Amino acid sequence: MARPTRQFILRVEVPMKPDRSNGSSQLIVQASRLRKVYRGASEVEALRGVDLEVERGEMVAVVGPSGSGKTTLLNCLSGLDRFDGGKVLVDGADLASMSDRERTAYRCRSMGFVFQAFNLLPVLTAAENVEIPLLLQGNGGRQARQRALEMLETLGLAHRARHRPDQLSGGEQQRVAVARALVHRPAVVWADEPTGNLDTEVTQVIVELLLRMNKEGQTIVLVTHNPQVAERAARTVRMRDGRIEAAPASAPAMR
Amino acid sequence: MSTALLVVGGLFFLVYGPLALLAWRRPLLARLALRESVRRRGQLALLVGGLMIGTASITASLVGADSAHDSRLVAAYRTWGAVDLTVSANGRLFSADVADRLGADPQLAPYVDGVQAGVELVGSVADVDREKAEDNVSLVGFDPRTQRPFGAFGLLGGHATYGEDMQPGDVLLSEALARALGARIGDRLRATAGWPGDATDLRVAGIAGTEGPGSYPSAGAIYMPLGTARLITRDDRINVVRVSARGGETGSLEAADRASGPLRSAVSRLGSGTPLLVGEGKRAAVHQYEVNMQALTAELLTFTGLIVAAGLALVVNLMLALAEERRPRLAILRALGLSRQDVIVVSVLEGGVYSLGGAAAGIVVGVFAGRLVGEQATAPYGFVVVYPIRPSTLAIAFAAGAVITLATVAAAAYRTSRMSIAAAVKDLPEPPSSRDRGRFHRAFSLLGLILGGAGVLYPDPLAQLGGGVVLIAVGAGIARGRLPDRGRASIAGLLLALWSAVVASGNTSMDDMTKYMSVFTGGTLVAVFGLCIVAAANLQVLEAGLGLMGGRLGRLQAALRPPMAQLSRRPVSTGLATGTFALALVLVTMLAIFVSAYRPEYARDSAGYNIRLVSHGLEPVQLPPDIESQIAARVDIPVRTYKGPIHSQAYGPNGESMPVPFYELSDRMLESDPPVYVTSRDKAFASAHEMWRAIARDSNLIVVNFTPPGGEVTLQGVHGPLQLRVAGNVSPILDGVMASSRTLAEIETRPSGSVVLLKTKSGVDAQSLARQIEHSLVLQGVRATTTRDLLDRSYTGSLAWLTFFDVILRMGLLVGVLSLGVVGIRAAVERRRAIGIMRSLGYQPPRVVGGLLAEAAMIATIGVATGVIAGAFLGYLMMRFFIAGGTYGIDGVRLGVALLIVYGTALLTTAVPAWRAAHISPADAIRHTG
To answer: pLDDT tens, B850-885?
Structure first.
């Protein structure tokens, strides 16, 4: 049995507990007839009218073969990329009607990202990377640093706070990325192949971490190739050729 | 073929020969390299444009130096024309028979084309019709019967004359003198030259063009047949015999050298009562120009060397950006089976294409820039500028530029080849490197230690400088991982700056000017880059300041932190970028110091005297009573002239072309200090007064304004060569040599009138009084000039000399600004992913742009601060050697304007790549190939 490389206690505080009393407010992501076309030498329709709903506090795994449109879907839903048709509402906000500036501000306020390549800023220390979202929201330096350190401590990385990404292992870098995604208590955390660059042992640690966050009420949408990771999510959405193949009904219970 | 061409050309073939062989043996690698190089035309153009900077700078420097050198030589040869040798008695008169006897000497005849009796005096000439006078004019008497071998005077208007058709009293004016006097043909002139026939009336018969004998022996001259010259000397004798050597060609001293020995023999056979000397004035003039050119070339190469270094830093930045952009593709090739060596070969072959293109383009740009430099370097002296484009010069520049660029490419390729294939394929950051760097690194470090140690111990400042740099670099490499990065970079940077200061301060010998300036340039480079690394590494102090910001400044902190961290945590890379900029600022600051040092302080530099009168008459200058009443104080200084060989260590007059004025200081005057401002003096003297007292006692001491204190001046004394020591320098109001009567008694000089310094009464306008004096005394040939005008003229001349620095400075600023553009491009290329991450986290584009602009401003600021500090120090050193008595200061306006331009263009250059980088789609930027 795989043994976690480091023991730590999760005490992640997330902003929005799922409120199941009001049926209409349960949905945090609503995408309908979403289309995305890449235009180059030839046009490639990456998303062909995707409909997807994600409930608050849900953990959804998007799976599918390479080129099926998983990452494109995540980019469009999270506001990283524009789309060519359809509608996306995230926490009631219509992404299509937002300017780049508004989408950027929205991402800053309401989104957290975890990427396969970790995507930490290489010249900043772990603590500095984590505090970026707080500083961007206008928090003071000391307050942001304190919160970042707390977050790192929560993830068992307090001793690595002053290290730069190139001084951290892959698992540590991804945990820092998770800390950065959570530190400002976003509405949704988008994770694109968060374990793609990690070995089995560290993958386990990161998946556990995401599950605990979700248990605390954090909405998570993750894209993965890894069936072991996908099966831990409450719901799996399967994509093929830019369409959702099967979208089981929302089931917020976790395995 | 020059040694430089052999070395550089050999190196070129040593480098490119194997490259060509590699391309032939490994066609796949060659094809990959070629395809890569032409894949993006815009990028190719940018790279070739950037890479040409090095070659262009080298070419400009070499062509500029060649141009300045050749222009001056052409001027020297033109001045002397067909006069290859002279026979004289240091200005004294001797029998005209000497010329006839030499001309008839059968042993001399095969070596000479012409021998001519002549008279050469110096005096003042007044144009009676224009009421204008000029002093220090050469009065040249020639014998029309023997003028043919020396050429005809080409007159403006198309005629030419050998003087046979000139009437008694007719003279020809040189073009420059005619311009200064505003003289026209038929004008009445009055010449005064300290001879019995003073105030001789003459008539302008023509104006001689500069071609032919009309340039001899100086720009301001009047030419007259011997019969007319005798009206001035009131003597049938002559004081010079001019000899034109057989087979003499323009630009060659060979004929003069061949004739020199036979002429000396012929002179000794004369058995004349007067001791006659054979003068090699043309050789002396050429030698003097060569000496002056050595200094100028050294200065030129020093300053362009700094630009070349800055250009190289730019090339390194470009190459690193290129290597970063190529990394994923090279990683795929590695994954497909290319070895590390193969990757390096592909990169180097690709770099070979760029470097050849850059070198070729650089040659074209450099030739034009070189012409500009050459023009600026010679224009102040009124020479006709020539632009020699020597194949050897172009070959050196081309080969040096290409080899230097290729070496940079190879270093960047080596760095890239060490990539982690898995990370590079996905365009991910390199994983942490192992501390154990293998045997190769250990061997490399050991080699560095041996070479560095040997360099430090070698008794040559340049080798010591290089050796120390290698040792410090190896030491910094060894300390990697053992010391915190910040401390390591700070210590290494400080050591570099200190070591260069130590070596530069020990480099005091100016015997070999080129060597001196090479050490100076090398020291500057090392010190600037060292200081930049220290500054970059310690930006963390500012970061800490950012950390203290609270509350509402959080957003600002978020915007500034990534660029600040980018700079502070990569100190070598930042040092490279800021160093490029700093080098440009070093030049700006030094120029500002020079301008300030040359700027006159009228009250001080004139010692309170407002007007200077120059009279070549033997009688004291008599001022009319109405003028006398406006004068508060007056000092008369007798002037004698010396005509003969004179040698000094630095720039100096050529006494064989133009008599040098000697100001005779009486004991009484020396006792009470002469009325001139002493700009600098030998350290042996505690005060100016002590210096004057020493001059009164010691006949070996003189004061000049062309050789620094402590230097030596050698000239022909009464009893043979005489070596004099320079006690001090004075302001340019008295241009020449100041010596005691005792010293002058040992030198062959003759009276040449006097200089009168006048102090006007309060409320008197010196300018109008000077005009009034000149108007009253024009027929005596008295020239009156305000000391303010004299100081201004000297300042303008100095500024003209500085114009060539200005050209180099502009090149430097261009390189600095370009380098910021390249840094901006690097940011866009290398930090595409990082910017994408920032955008995905919520950084608005203006904030990203703001961060990148802040980074550019920070680079500019570090560069400005380091450059200004280093420039202030180096400017002080340069000033000490080259500007005797200048007051140390900085021309704030010039520096301020330069800084404004620097910051403005820096921000403009960075804004475009920053804007483009900030508008990268975050999804595109963080998308990877995995």
So the answer is: 888 888 888 888 888 888 888 888 888 777 666 655
Please give the average per-residue pLDDT across B50-67, as a whole number. 76
Beta bridge mates, B153:
B161
* ipTM of the complex model: 0.77
First to last CA, chain A: 19
Query: What is d(CA A115, CA A246) in angstroms, rounded to the nearest whole number?
Result: 24
Is the peptide bond preceding residue B27 cis, with omega within 30 degrees of 0? no
In degrees to the nearest 10, what's the CA dihedral of B225, B227, B232, B234? 150
B284-330 pLDDT tens trace = 888 777 776 776 677 766 676 777 777 777 777 777 777 777 777 77
Is the Cα dihedral B344, B347, B352, B358 positive or negative? negative
Closest Cβ opposite residue A81 in set B549, B838, B923: B923
Please give the C-alpha separations between residue B180 and each of B42, B156, B229, B278, B528, in angstroms, as whole numbers: 56, 16, 22, 33, 47
CB contact under 8 A, B553 and A141: yes
> Closest Cα partner for B787 from B676, B680, B882?
B676
Task: Give dist(CA B131, CA B123) in Å, integer.
Answer: 17
State CA B328 to chain mean position distance: 47
Is the pLDDT reported for residue B665 higher than 90? yes
B554 to A167: CB separation less than 8 angstroms, yes or no: no
Alpha-helical regions (H) of B554-609? 554-568, 571-598, 602-605
Question: CA dist B678 to B582, B590, B887, Å?
Answer: 35, 24, 12
Mutation site, A38, A119, A178, interface B, largest B CB count within 10 A = A119
Contact A135 B841 (CB under 8 A): no
Among B841, B921, B928, the strongest candidate for a mutation testing the A interface, having the largest count of A CBs within 10 A, is: B841
Question: Hey, what's the torsion of the CAs at B584, B585, B589, B594, to 10 degrees?
Answer: 0
Q: A115 CA to chain B: closest CA distance, Å?
A: 9
Cα Rg of chain B, angstroms: 34
How far apart are alpha carbons B50 and B56 in whole angstroms?
A: 10
Chain B: closest CA distance from residue A110 (Å): 10
- Inter-chain residue contact B843 with A133, CB threshold 8 Å: no
Beta strands A43-55 and B188-192, pairing class: unpaired
Q: Summarize the confidence of residues A240-248 as an average pLDDT.
A: 79
Contact call for residues B376 and B803 (beta carbons, < 8 A): yes
> Quick one: pLDDT at residue B655?
60
Residue B844 tokens read as 């608005």
Residue B391 — φ and ψ, nearest 5°? -55, -40
Number of A to B CB contacts under 8 A, please give it.
116
For B842, which of A104, A115, A128 is closest by C-beta distance?
A104
**Confidence band for B653, pLDDT divided at 50, 70 and 90:** low
CB contacts of B927 in chain A (<8 Å) are: 71
User: Tokens 């937002």, residue?
Assistant: A98
Q: What is the pLDDT of residues B141-169, one digit of tens each?
A: 999 999 999 999 999 888 899 999 999 99
